[in-house]
Amino acid sequence: MSEAPAVEHPAAGLPALAALSLVPKAGAPQSMKDFKTDQEVRWCPGCGDYAVLAAVQSFMPELGLARENVVFISGIGCSSRFPYYMNTYGMHSIHGRAPAIATGLAASRRDLSVWVVTGDGDALSIGGNHLIHALRRNVNLKILLFNNRIYGLTKGQYSPTSEIGKITKSTPMGSLDAPFNPVSLAIGAEASFVARTIDSDRKHLQSVLREAAAHSGTALVEIYQNCNIFNDGAFDALKDRSSAEEAVIRLEHGQPILFGADRSKGVVRDRATGDLKVIDTTVHGTADVLVHDAHAASPTTAFALSRLADPDTLHHTPIGVLRSVDRPVYDTQMSDQLQQAAEQQGKGDLAALLAGKDTWTVVG
Amino acid sequence: MSSQVSTSANGQPVLGEQREPVKETRRLDRVIIRFAGDSGDGMQLTGDRFTSETASFGNDLSTLPNFPAEIRAPAGTLPGVSSFQLHFADHDILTPGDAPDVLVAMNPAALKANIADVPRGAEVIVNTDEFTKRAMTKVGYPASPLEDGSLAAYAVHPVPLTTLTVEALKDFPLSRKEAERSKNMFALGLLSWMYHRPTEGTERFLRSKFAKKPELAEANVTAFRAGWNFGETTEDFAVSYEVAPATKAFPPGTYRNISGNLALSYGLVAASRQADLPLFLGSYPITPASDILHELSRHKNFGVRTFQAEDEIAGIGAALGAAFGGALGVTTTSGPGVALKSETIGLAVSLELPLLVIDIQRGGPSTGLPTKTEQADLLQAMYGRNGEAPVPIIAPATPGDCFNAAMEAARIALAYRTPVFLLSDGYLANGSEPWRVPDVAELPDLRVRFATAPNHDGEFWPYLRDPETLARPWAVPGTPGLEHRIGGIEKQDGTGNISYDPANHDHMVRTRQAKIDGITVPDIVVDDPEDRARTLVLGWGSTYGPITAAVRRVRGAGGAVAQAHLRHLNPFPRNLGEVLGRYDNVLVPEMNLGQLAHLLRAKYLVDARSYTQVTGLPFKAEQLARAIAAIENGTQEESADV
């Protein structure tokens, strides 16, 4: 399959993105309805997935990519029905394996924009191995991890992101295992791009998608998503106007990390431990407040930021792009090796390969 | 020894050994040699080199490498013994041979582990330097077998291989330990003298292998030559042997020696070229399949992408993802890996995308015998998935045939849009034989047509089928207007939309089965030269060699027996039922507990009798010949006497 050259089209809403330079552009301006399918959307009424779907469908035209070169691949779970509703190429695969399948596709077709849609059970439990390896390889994939901290499709068991002590059908006396923090996990797995956003905040969600799409390599976007049937209100602390100001830390690259009413709180480094902590800026001033550097080569501060949130109350939850660094991209390097081999050894000659070096001839 | 039947690739004669032996030379029609030593003694390399020399000389040959799963088992122990058996002849042969004519035992453990297989009168070459009291005690020899008369039935050649090697290398700046490592080359030189093997190939090989350490290259060449000269001069070896090239065994053509895994790798590269699709291998290292991953990784200049995945599941997942994108997707593994891939194979059945699943079978269950051979994954390949998930199955018969089997598996996968199982095994994978290099121009055309336009009232229906093959269209991402979604949830026939409709599910299950049942495969051919046989011996896969050799023996003794061999195990050839019905007895030898026999009995209501062996080793021709004779006499044996 030959890789299509980059075509700059006036309809492209974003400046040419290195990450998408090999993906053909759309021939005409697109709108949200271009990305909708004729399939009836079958999530529960009130599900947070609707908001994410609408946000993605209305964001895609911005990229101005040829729709046929966009692929959504999912695993199993409520969120994994997503591809059926995107009028692109799509595959609804098996539980946990979407990153592996998408890796094969992205590694062999650099002219495609490949998106993975997954959930907390799909990505972090049954598919945990594939997720971490996709992240460390840095394949050109955009992974949308819908985290509702519960198993929805199997009707309400606790998930690997559920808080300890969660009462569910499978844990009537409370769950015993400690949850994963998906952002911490991703940073630990050498992810080159890690972000977090919230289903109900379309503007923020789309701004994060924009940065993820522009990133070369694997981008993991954790989306806090409400399951109104089995875990309703899980993220209310971050959504409720009165509490959100105190609970949410909005990260912006190059900006001091301030939050709270009148930006009265700030994140500083604790000189004694090197860890991060929250201070009252009305008392301590803003001089020591950290300036967020998403591009820092070291993942240390991004990791520390991911640990600020209290897993039970969600207070001090950072959202936005925690880390975005340039690192060699797997599929680019794979392609380079193929080219290099062809240059060094010449394009493959099947007859020569089959004969090898030691032959003998039998004459009739 | 000058019959000039062979030329090397560059046209230079490789025959016509320059050094005319001064001793008596005897002519033999065939020889079986077994090299045996410690895992670290380099016996596999020695065997490989002797095989290459023999192949370039023009003999027919068949090999059986046999080694432990441990990389370096404790030195000098029985579990650490590694061996390589080579059968070569002046005529066409089919197996690595039942019993060695010559055993080379590099230490007491190698002698002890192998002597029971050696018939009386055979030659036994032992490295006397290793027969120390400690080494002998370690393997339970109370007294030296070289001195207590227990080897009286054999023609024993006691050779101080280690001492002679060290002596030969005394001018090299090597420690004693380093010099000792070349003792396998000394042994190879000695055997090369004994059997008039050409030596240039091995010298060239050593210089290339140690190109970065020329002093090691020269040391090994020196040890090799010293071994040759030792044979030439010592009085202990009074006779050398000639085995003439097998001129009549081979149709005209260009030949090379090839192992099953190498032939299979080449078959995949060739299939990719003939289909004009890039090859994508998703794999996870596992014995005895890893060599295919290694080999394909060397051919990136053919546009081959190899992906070493995080696990077996990701290996096949990535291959399936690449297939969705229009590549020839392949995954390679062995039995335990197949177990892990089952769910993804089921997905591929549902997605109806081409995918090759290559299973190099080994001894099971569980980890079983990783380095030994077995045929016990047939029912796993046939049925090992949830739901009704039929998958075509192909099995190669010989190492060289792995090339054709790979091409055939690709043909079916691409034409019918289905995952296909290829069942090789450890014996085929590591064994080798002369292989006629195919003419690239005569390879089959495997090109496919991707869907490029809507196929139903201006819409694209991803499950609208070809009426002939029942294959659905393969529309790859990047094709405008054909955007569609596929998945493991049941599909509505035609549109491919999610459907829970009972009648549709019934229809889809039956349609997927009908698609596989309808695959065109060649009729099975029966070999029954006198057309009077009452017994048919039916095999599949790597038992081809031993079964054919056994059938020859039975016929040679005046018996009449028919033979047929299955390449396609799903679907079976259309004429199989009719063929089975022609015979009073159907004998099915298998390296499992009767899996093919089970399928035959279920499908054709035929009284197929099993003859089984699960020792991790291939059948011996002699033993199979007895089993065939027994069924003819009405005294059937059910399993190998092991």
UniProtKB/TrEMBL annotation, chain A:
Keyword Oxidoreductase: yes
Keyword ATP-binding (UniProt): no
UniProt keyword annotations, A-Z: Oxidoreductase
One Gene Ontology molecular-function label: oxidoreductase activity, acting on the aldehyde or oxo group of donors, iron-sulfur protein as acceptor
Domain of life assignment: Bacteria
Segments forming domain Thiamine pyrophosphate enzyme TPP-binding: 76-223
GO biological process, one term: cellular respiration
Descriptive protein name: 2-oxoacid:ferredoxin oxidoreductase subunit beta
TrEMBL record, chain B:
Polar residues bias: start-end ranges: 1-11
Sequence ranges assigned to domain Pyruvate/ketoisovalerate oxidoreductase catalytic in this UniProt record: 40-227
Annotated GO MF terms: magnesium ion binding; oxidoreductase activity, acting on the aldehyde or oxo group of donors
Keywords, comma-separated and alphabetical: Oxidoreductase
Region of interest (Disordered), residue spans: 1-23
Amino-acid biosynthesis found in the keyword field: no
Gene Ontology terms: biological process: response to oxidative stress
Gene3D superfamilies with a match to the protein in the record: 3.40.50.920, 3.40.50.970, Pyruvate-ferredoxin oxidoreductase, PFOR, domain III (3.40.920.10)
Domain Pyruvate flavodoxin/ferredoxin oxidoreductase pyrimidine binding: 280-493
InterPro entries per record: 2-oxoacid/accept_OxRdtase_asu, Pyruvate:ferred/Flavod_OxRd, Pyrv/ketoisovalerate_OxRed_cat, Pyrv_Fd/Flavodoxin_OxRdtase_N, Pyrv_flavodox_OxRed_cen, THDP-binding, Transketo_C/PFOR_II
Domain of life of the source: Bacteria
Record-linked NCBIfam families: OAFO_sf
Matching PANTHER family: 2-OXOGLUTARATE OXIDOREDUCTASE SUBUNIT KORA, PYRUVATE-FLAVODOXIN OXIDOREDUCTASE-RELATED
Protein name, UniProt field: 2-oxoacid:acceptor oxidoreductase subunit alpha
